[in-house]
Amino acid sequence: MSEAFGFRAFGGPQVQEFFDRPDPVPEPAEVLIRVTAAGVNPLDHKLRSGVVPHFYGERPFPQVFGAEATGVVLAVGAEVEGLDVGDTVFGCAITGAGTYAGTTVLVGANSARKPAGLRDDWAATIPVAATSALNAVDQLDLPRGATVLINGVGGGVGLATAQVARDQGLNVIGTGGTAKRTIAEAVGATFVDYTDGDVVDRVRALAPDGVDGLVDLVGGASLRTVAPLAREPGKVVSVADATVAELGGEMVRRRVDRADLERAAALMVQGRLDPYIVGTYPLARAAEALALVESGHALGKVVIDLTRGPGVGAAE
Questions:
Q1: pLDDT, position 310
Q2: Comparing C-alpha atoms, which of 194, 253, 180, 196 is closest to residue 229?
Q3: Dihedral over alpha carbons 274, 280, 283, 287 (to 10 degrees)
Q4: Cα(275)–Cα(300) distance, rounded to whole angstroms?
């Protein structure tokens, strides 16, 4: 048995609860891990809200929060290759087992060994934020010297995207609220505050002929406002809103395979990608961690540290 944090029905924070669950039994393609760190993402509260009720299929309640984790392998399914009991790995619980828990199962093909020199909490941010950034920049396939606009640069995915783009020789413009300026500029983005005048006019002042590519992390009216800034509609990709297709763009084609996990980890080890962790919470304070992300005011990534005791430490 291990403690888990999840939700008993679809709804708001009032449906969240702690409970004990048996350790999951890995399927042939899965590994069972003891979780040491779990990333917190907007997807977590969106799944709780019921916006995408069948994202993981017809899973019974209570469901466990979380889609990404680092941990130590306790058991390996018969079909898993390249991972062994005792390895520290990071990856995605893409079948819905959740990661805000003492133990969980990850799909072996969507997991990788954690390299020496990479902290567990950093590794736990890779499967969602870092690989989303890699996938988005790869999909745009822009030449060095091109300009990319990141709509919503201040969160975990936005900051990772800015760093990956900069690492590939792209000029980065990023939009966000006033509080996001310092952190966006720290990763090399030219910042445009959407609360300080017309965003379109201010971006065009920086890129009079429009931008070569656009990565949207906001969706909705914001996406529709900035999409015309792209010189080619096909160079607009979104991780937030499928209606991007109506504008001529595409959703980011997600890959969470071992190669991309290892690629992102290497960037971190080499000092070329920083997840900008702004809050680390013990499992007992998972509700606070999730609330920070749900507020939209997190300036970077939030992580749950499952090596901490129930009353240990404040957010860092």
A1: 52
A2: 194
A3: -100
A4: 7
Q: What ranges make up the beta strands (E) of the chain?
A: 2-7, 16-21, 30-40, 63-64, 68-76, 88-92, 103-107, 111-113, 147-151, 171-176, 190-193, 213-216, 236-238, 250-251, 277-282, 301-305
C-alpha span between 82 and 8 (Å, rounded): 36
pLDDT band at 172 (very low <50, low <70, confident <90, very high): very high
Determine the Cα–Cα distance for residues 117 and 266; give it in Å rounded to an integer. 10
Token couple for 225? 């406002």
Which residue bears the tokens 């980890």?
A: 265
Could you tell me the pLDDT band of residue 309, with boundaries at 50, 70 and 90?
low
**pLDDT confidence of 314, banded at 50, 70, 90?**
very low
**Percentage of residues in the chain having pLDDT higher than 90:** 89
pTM value is 0.93
152-167 pLDDT per residue, tens: 998 899 999 999 999 9
Residue 263, CA atoms < 13 Å, CB-side half-sphere? 16
Q: What's the DSSP call for residue 114?
A: P
Phi-psi region of 282 (alpha: psi -120 to 50; beta: other; left: phi over 0): beta
- Per-residue pLDDT at 313 exceeds 90: no
Can you tell me whether residue 217 is helix, strand or coil?
Answer: coil
Q: In what order do the strands lie in the sheet with 2-7?
A: 16-21, 2-7, 63-64
Six-digit token string for 117: 């020199």
